[in-house]
Design brief:
Blueprint lengths: L1 E2 L9 E6 L3 H12 L4 E7 L5 H8 L3 E5 L7 H11 L4 E6 L4 H9 L4 E4 L4 H12 L4 E2 L1 H10 L6 H10 L5 H8 L3 H15 L4 H10 L4
Parallel strand pairs: 2-3, 2-4, 4-5, 5-6, 6-7
Antiparallel strand pairs: 1-3
């Protein structure tokens, strides 16, 4: 985590950057540094540090990557909404998965963009979100509406995520403090709801759609 002690407190938009790839953080920081009305006040590489860094640096806008160690960006967005409601959140992702968009909105994020968007769009999004507007990729919004909400329950999603680490049903059951029969029932339900043929296929489908 790094702070910018020279950032003005009222004349600029204070920004927190969170991405586990230092190169991407540096590129975003350099881009934002070219704008006279913006200043990066914190850079985070671990999702578990986001809330503490935000409470310390008091950003106006937080740019959060979806996939980070410690705590993913969607969970961090929800936590910021509870603990620092004045901070607007833009969720950034490499993968334009419609399910991510829906989950970002449920986490009360103000914006959702893919990382390969033109730089001027990101800068404009920061200003718009800071002004109280919402910025969402229109193509992802349309796809998200067409897919609808995730059909998986919270427990089904948890069991499916647990399968991504491999292991037998018994091992998954032990890890989640469930019976083997319960795990099998959840996996059977997940396979049915996703239209998959196998557990691995269900993981692929749910991941592509941003449901897990």
């Amino acid at each position: 985590m790094t702070d910018s002690p020279d950032a003005a407190t009222g004349s600029v938009i204070r920004i927190l950057l969170a991405d586990d790839q230092a190169l991407i953080r540096g590129a975003f920081a350099a881009l934002i540094g070219l704008e006279p009305d913006m200043a990066v006040v914190a850079q985070i590489g671990d999702g578990a540090e986001i809330v503490a860094a935000a409470l310390h640096s008091r950003p106006d806008v937080a740019l959060l990557d979806v996939q980070m160690p410690g705590l993913d960006g969607l969970s961090a967005a929800a936590a910021l909404g509870r603990q620092l409601p004045g901070c607007r959140v833009i969720v950034l992702t490499t993968f334009g998965r419609p399910g991510y968009l829906r989950r970002a909105m449920e986490a009360r994020a103000s914006g959702f963009m893919v990382k390969d968007a033109p730089p001027e769009m990101l800068i404009d999004a920061i200003r718009r979100v800071h002004a109280g507007l919402r910025v969402v990729d229109p193509a992802l919004a349309a796809e998200s509406l067409s897919l609808g909400e995730s059909p998986l329950t919270a427990r089904e999603a948890e069991v499916l995520v647990a399968t991504t680490d491999g292991g037998t049903v018994a091992e998954i059951a032990h890890r989640l403090f469930l019976s083997e029969g319960t795990v099998r029932n959840h996996l059977s339900s997940v396979i049915g709801k996703t239209g998959a043929r196998t557990r691995a296929d269900a993981v692929r489908i749910a991941t592509e759609r941003g449901w897990i």
